[in-house]
Amino acid sequence: MSRTFNFSAGPAILPEEVLREAQAAIWDFDGAGIGILEHSHRGGPFEKVVQQTEASCRKLAGIPDDYAVLFLSGGASTQFFMLPANLLPDGATADYLVTGAWSEKAVAEAKRYGRVHEAATTAATNHDRIPRANEIRWSERPVYAHFTSNNTIFGTQWTSEPTPPAGVWLACDASSDIFSRPIDVTRYGVLYAGAQKNIGPAGVTLVIVRRDLVERPVRDLPTMLRYGTHAKEGSLYNTPPSFGIYLMGRVFEWTLRQGGLAGIEKKNREKAQVLYDALAATSFYSAHAGEGSRSLMNVTFRTPSAELDAKFVKAAEAAGFAGLKGHRSVGGMRASIYNAFPKAGCVALASFMQDFAAKHG
Ligand code: PMP
User: Fold this and answer.
1) What is the pLDDT of residue 3?
2) What confidence score (pLDDT) does residue 9 get?
3) Could you tell which of 102, 130, 295 is best to mutate to test the pocket of ligand 1, judged by most ligand atoms within 8 Å of the CB?
4) What is the Cα–Cα distance from 59 to 216, expressed in whole angstroms?
5) Of all protein residues, whose CA lies closest to atom 9 belonging to ligand 1?
6) Residue of 38, 173, 180, 280 with fewest CB within 10 Å of its CB?
7) pLDDT in tens, 217-238
8) DSSP state letters, 229-259
9) Which of residues 239, 257, 275 is at a domain's end?
10) Are residues 312 and 247 both part of a single domain?
């Protein structure tokens, strides 16, 4: 059976090579007559998987030794509270850049532990852009500055990190663009992402955290909620999401084979360009995100009416393009084209868009 062009925002498309490797590994991993889903997390074969996944991750993103690489569960939504619970002292302030629904959720959780200063927000225009540097008002002495590198729902993306005041570390929810381009990890104190868009299946969350921060939690917390617990035990304090860790490792290796992060960025730029060019080619479509803020991962757009949007999604589905309906808070369409999405799918969608506009414009 051939595979559908899957534009789902997440869980999302995975590399075919990885899926085929996983198919075989589910049956038998490492010639043991035991599948990857069935191996104990305390056994040698799985311990090797964790070590290899971490090593590939470090190689791919150039992560130095003074950072811990953790494989946790609970999704990025758990990091919304785990980060401030571990690192934002009572009464202290963290700055948050609010660029969408996920940033808003992160703010709400941080407020449980300390003060939140919204250093910028784009809510007034339904998060159709990234704030300009001169719009950001940092607080006096924030503990950290949190941003959402790619706004999955709105289709906007930071082209580079915001610059916080000197001495303030960045915290980032990179769920929907992690490892889609080169990254300088040393600018971050904490970087986290649910795997299910660019780096693996749902159920495992990647957390990269500076070791000195891990070693000084600001309050007493349940064991499972402490970064230190997982850092000390190499993500094996309890039964980890073992299959997710395995698959993430395979995706990291695949990404390295694509030329690493520089190679994947080049491909991502080409793919997104095909769709943004298709939007620019006719006045029939409009993009939700403003120029200069447009995401390479989620392309959000609409036709002249909600009726035509619904027609577009239905016709696209019939033509073999899945997952294009936009999020209800934006409407229209959203084409999610993460690392594993093939350029051929973008080219095919662009051609479908052209035909649809000619028929209904
Ligand atoms: N942050 C962003 C940017 C997201 O896109 C999502 C999920 N779509 C989340 C956080 C929430 O992630 P999870 O479902 O893994 O908790």
Assistant:
1) 87
2) 98
3) 102
4) 27
5) 76
6) 280
7) 799 999 999 999 999 999 999 9
8) HHHHTTT-SS---HHHHHHHHHHHHHHHHTT
9) 257
10) no
